[in-house]
Amino acid sequence: MSKEQVVVVTGGGRGIGRAIAAHFAADGAQIVAASRTPSELAETKADVERKGGRCHVHSCDISIARQVESLVDDIVKRFGRIDVLVNCAGVAPVSTIEELSEETFDRLWAVNVKAMYLVSRAAWAALKKTKGVIVNISSIASRDPFAGLTAYGASKAWVNAWTRGLADEGRASGVRVFAIAPGAVQTQMLHEVVPDYPKADTLDPENVAAMVHAIAQPACRYATGQTIFFQRQGD
């Protein structure tokens, strides 16, 4: 990947997002990591720079349109381009239908669905200019949610459908769109959701980062619109 290329990662403050930022930076790209939490972004920036990469961070709530517009405007003014957008931000509350509050549901939909729409829409013009790539982070729960993750799984099923439709929209201008749907990943969010999930059945964030990096390469251009499912099941 060229040093001129700019890769934007939402949810870049920790977990999968941080691993993706570091992976692309190691390949020479300029990283822009976005998250609500400045302290986590600072850790991502330090991690990327320790590995010889370049990282700009932007603290914002990507479920709020004006903050998304500010993020994209800042990126375009600073770097003049966006080559890859990774929509990684997400939340995964565990709740039965009887216990799922409207407030919790609204926040899940705002982060997992609305934010992806807002960021993709705001970055679309810049991506058209570079014939860029969007990679959306979905989940294996989008096709097989277990009890308590019904709302989360539904939000990720939306991601898969959004990916397919947006890829069709992007064909005329050369914008490619993919979704990556991993199984359980060894992250803080997983420990918060399922504290005793078997480690032997979890992916490392770097496994997901490598997959995102691979699918963003020109060699995969003919697979645009696809959702790639993968998981680990005990070695």
Main traits of this protein?
7 helices, Rossmann fold, 235 residues, globular, alpha/beta
CATH superfamily: NAD(P)-binding Rossmann-like Domain
**Run of helices and strands:** EHEHEHEHEHEHHE
| CATH architecture group name | 3-Layer(aba) Sandwich
Determine the fraction of residues in helical runs and give it as a percent range: 40-55%
CATH topology: Rossmann fold
The largest sheet, given as strand count, sense and whether it forms a barrel, is: 7 strands, parallel
Low-pLDDT windows of residues: none
E-strand count: 7
Report strand order across the widest sheet: 3-2-1-4-5-6-7
Indicate the proportion of strand residues. 15-25%
Q: Pairing-aware structural class of the strands and helices? A: alpha/beta
- What's the level 1 CATH class? Alpha Beta
Query: How widely separated are the two ends?
Result: 32 Å
Mean pLDDT: 91
Q: Which value, in Å, is the CA radius of gyration?
A: 17 Å
Shape by Cα distribution: globular
The tally of structural domains comes to 1
Count of helices? 7
